[in-house]
Amino acid sequence: MVNYSWFYNHRYLLILIFLGIIFFILYSWLYIGVEPMFNWPDETANYHFTKSFAENSVLKIYEPLGSLADGVVRPRSITYNNGYIQPGSFLGIILIFGLIAKIFGTGIIVFLTPLFSAIGVIFFYLLVRKLFSDQIAFFSSLLMYILPPYWYYASHGLLHNNLFLSLLIMGLFFLINSLTRESETKKFDWQYIIAGLFIGLSLIVRTSETIWVGLIILILLIAYRSRIKLQNAINFIATLAVIIVPILYLNRKLYGSVTSFAYSAQAEDASSLEFFSQTAIYKLKQLLFPFGFDWQSIIATYRDYLIQMFPWISILLVIGLFWYLRRYTFSLIKKIFPQFLLIDHISKNEKVYLLIYSALSIWLIIYYGSFIFNEHAIQTDAPIFGTSYMRYWLPIYVFGLPLAVNFLTKFISLFKNKIIGRVLSLSIIFVIIVLSIFKVVLDPYQGLIVTKKYINNNITMKNEVMSLTENNAIIITWANDKVFFPERKVIANLPINQDQATRILTNLTQEVPLYFFYSPFDKNSPQYLDQFQASHLTLEPIKNFDNNEILYKVY
Asked: Is the dihedral of CA 383, 388, 393, 398 positive or negative?
């Protein structure tokens, strides 16, 4: 006999699982029916090393021309060290996806971020349900599926951000599920081990987020300290260590220091105590404020990318946050003057969530808001959809959803006529969904339709260039390094020093076929043209492409 009550009690979860299947397909749309081609150099590098790790279990690849060319034979987001090219970013996504690809084949790599993103929404529902109501958890998760930055980066399968956030949400669910259980705390709770596993995996995917993730964990452990058994705390920390320590070892092997990554590795002489102290202070400053501290930049980026970019969502986020801050402030006053105020009760779980959200939001806004990212060739003064602020501030968008939905439900409950309230709530949700879909799919610069067209054009262009160049050729290009690599070796950054550039170019023309791909959208193309001329090299046009892009033979 079918237990219909079970289906009714789990209706929200079942609906989200069904939608998860649909959104997994939507998130995968860029990769369906085409060969792997990416819109970001980070993606190209991550895919290359993930595939290499899955097939050959290596994280660095020998480059025979490295010493001859001072290590510049490589695309962006890849570094050179002692004859080898190696990842230029965090290793976690390469190791996790590489291990999965060892089992299921490399064809699955581009679909793993869409898959983890869909699973992340399910766990977000389970997490929010523990702290708020079932209804708030459901509608928050529904909005998460179509949240423009989440959808956008779920569709870019080799960027770190959605994988990091999904793994973190999974770990936080198991940790909070144990901390907030109504039954007596177990001496041994396996959920602490699972929590340590997923949080540890999230940190090896984006180790730069360790400080605020650690702050979240600290707040949780303090808030629920009476419910934590020593054995469970040890199990949680030990599991974290099992995941993180091997990454520190790999950092040491690849970049020379356990605390260094590709973009921060540097040779240092720590022979003196004075130098060590200066270095320690400098490293602490770099750890806390790697982009400096600029109030004007923080305010401008907050306005552009947290308010103006998605106003139909961000306004609700801001109002929802202040609504909760107001309730929390009044609850504190009520403890002092209980006879004066009668307000809605705010639970301990809600207070903890509010504190966590406020802390991570302040940290991320200051941490990333002080830096100006110039990543796109798009000439516009308006905020650009798809810029790095969106992915770095993704936790602010996502974890703010329950606050926004809670405010929306409170606002709608003010209407005494339930029919009007329901119509209004459905209308608001419908508007949010439509505007979000239009933004992520139809944005004229970075929307998924434009991106799909761009990728298809790049595949066609790449195939033409492959047919016109030798297998051992090197192509000098900055903007299109992600298009031609790894089928052809590329140089994305020639040294600015002309004597060094001349020596490198002369050496390479004597060893391999050398090409230059000129693009008017490439910020380095004018510099390279000047350097070719100063090096007394000849450029022979091979083929003109659309948008005035030209492939030259260099000799």
From this structure: positive
Alpha helices by DSSP H, listed for 394-447, are 394-399, 401-412, 418-442
Place of tokens 């990543």: 375
What is the rounded distance in angstroms from the CA atom of residue 112 to the CA atom of residue 154? 9
Both tokens of residue 156? 């870019």
Q: Which residues contact 404 (CB under 8 A, 6 or more apart)?
A: 140, 143, 313, 316, 317, 319, 320
Helix (H, G, I), strand (E, B) or coil at 303: helix
Distance set, CA 202 to CA 96, 132, 161, 293, 357 (Å): 10, 24, 9, 26, 18
What contacts 134, CB < 8 A, 6 or more positions away? Answer: 12
Q: How far apart are CA 32 and CA 110, in angstroms?
A: 10
Where residue 367 falls (left for φ over 0; alpha for ψ -120 to 50; beta otherwise) is alpha
pLDDT at 287: 62
- Tokens matching residue 545: 């492409």
Q: What is the dihedral of CA 264, 266, 268, 273, to 10 degrees?
A: 0
**Burial bucket for residue 56 (CB in 10 Å: 0-12, 13-18, 19+):** exposed
Are the C-beta atoms of residues 51 and 101 closer than 8 Å to each other? yes
DSSP-assigned letter for residue 497: S
Mean pLDDT along residues 277-285? 56
258, amino acid identity:
V
Domain edges within the chain: 309-449, 469-554
| Contact assessment for residue 46 and residue 89, using Cβ atoms and an 8 Å cutoff | yes
Token readout for 409 is 């439900």
CA distances from 6 to 1, 13, 542 (A): 12, 11, 67
pLDDT per residue over 208-257, tens digit each? 899 999 999 999 999 998 888 889 999 999 999 999 999 988 988 888 77
Beta bridge partners of 541: 552
Residue 304 CB coordination number (10 Å)? 17
Backbone angles phi, psi at 69, to 5 degrees: -115, 25
Between helices 134-146 and 109-131, what is the axis angle to 10°? 150
Per-residue tokens: 72: 């510049």
CA distance 178 to 190: 9
pTM value is 0.91
Cβ 426 vs Cβ 409: under 8 Å: no
pLDDT at res. 263: 45
The tokens for 294 are 């600029």
Q: What is the per-residue DSSP string for 14-42? A: HHHHHHHHHHHHHHTGGGTTS----SSHH
